[in-house]
Amino acid sequence: MGETRAQRAALDHARGLRLSIGEGLKRLREDDGLARAAVARAAGLDPTYVRLVETGARDASIETLALLASVLGAEFSARIYPVTGPGIHDRVQGVMGEALLDILHARWIRLPEVPVYQPRRGVLDFLFAELASRVGVGTELQSELRRLELQLRRHREKEEALPSSPRWRELEATAGSTLATSRLLVLRSTRDMRDIASTYEATLRAAYPARTEDAIAALTSANALWPGPAIVWINVDGKATRVMHEPPRGVRLGR
C-alpha cells in the first residue's frame, strides 16, 4: 500500500522542519564562535551526530533538541497550531476535485496537495500552472464554509507562500522565468453556500473579483488568459457532479 497524500505532505513538512531547526542550531553556534566538537562535548553527544542534526540529515528527539538549545544559551519550543483545517477531505470534496480535473484543458499543469512553507505553512488542494502565460493558481475546494474570514485569510496567505514550495521552484525552472501567483476558490452549490455568497457578496467579491465565466474559459480553453482570483461553483447531486459555467441562480457574485 502506497503513501497517502497526508503522509507525503507530512514527510515534506518534517524535512523542512529538520532543515530549519538544524540551521537555527548551527547559526547560534557559529554566532557564539563555538566549535561543533565543543557543543557536542558539553551536551554529551557525538560530534558527528550533532553535524547530522545541524544539516537536517538526522531526526533528533525533543529532549536532544532542548539539550542542544540549552548548551547554546537558548530554549527549544514546539507547538501545534491550525493552518489549513483537517487534512481529511470528505467524499464530496473528492468528487469536486475529479469534476474540476475533468474540465481542465491540457495546457494546465495540475499538481495535487502542494505544501507551502513561508510565510504560511499549509497545503493547497491543487496548484494549476500555465507556463505560457506564466501563472500558477493555488486552488482550494470547499464543500462548506464554517469560518469565512479564516478561509479567505488562509487562502491568500497560502497563495503568497507559493514561491516557498519546491514544486513552485521546479515550475519556474521549467518555465525559465518567474511565475505570477493567483488563487481559485471552488465552492459546492448548496443552499447554505449560496446564502453565504449573497450575504457576504462584497467581501467575497473583494477577495475574488474575477468573473466566474472568465475563469471557466481560462480553465477549459486553449488560449483564454487567467482573469485573476476567482470563484467557481460545482453542483453535486447524487451521482451527477458538474462544474457550473456561471454562478448559481440567485447569486450575483462572479457575474
Secondary-structure blueprint:
Blueprint: H1 5-31, H2 36-43, H3 47-54, H4 62-71, H5 91-103, E1 109-116, E2 122-130, E3 135-142, H6 148-160, H7 166-175, E4 180-188, H8 191-199, H9 201-207, H10 212-220, E5 230-237, E6 240-244
Parallel strand pairs: 3-4, 4-5
Antiparallel strand pairs: 1-2, 2-3, 5-6
Count of domain modules: 2
Characterize the overall form: elongated
Major sheet: arrangement of strands? 1-2-3-4-5-6
Low-confidence stretches: none
* Rg from alpha-carbon coordinates: 22 Å
Beta-strand segment tally: 6
Q: In angstroms, what separates the terminal alpha carbons?
A: 45 Å
Helix share, percent: 40-55%
Strand content: 15-25%
Q: Biggest sheet, open or closed, and with what strands and sense? A: 6 strands, mixed
N-to-C series of helices and strands? HHHHHEEEHHEHHHEE
* Content-based structural category: alpha/beta
- Average pLDDT figure: 89
How many helix segments? 10
What does this protein look like?
The protein has 255 residues and is an alpha/beta fold. It has two domains: 67 residues, lambda repressor-like DNA-binding domains (434 Repressor (Amino-terminal Domain)); 154 residues. 45% of the residues lie in helices and 18% in strands. Strands 1-2-3-4-5-6 form a six-stranded mixed beta sheet, sandwiched between helices. Helix 2 crosses helix 3. The longest helix has 27 residues. The chain is elongated and about 70 Å long.
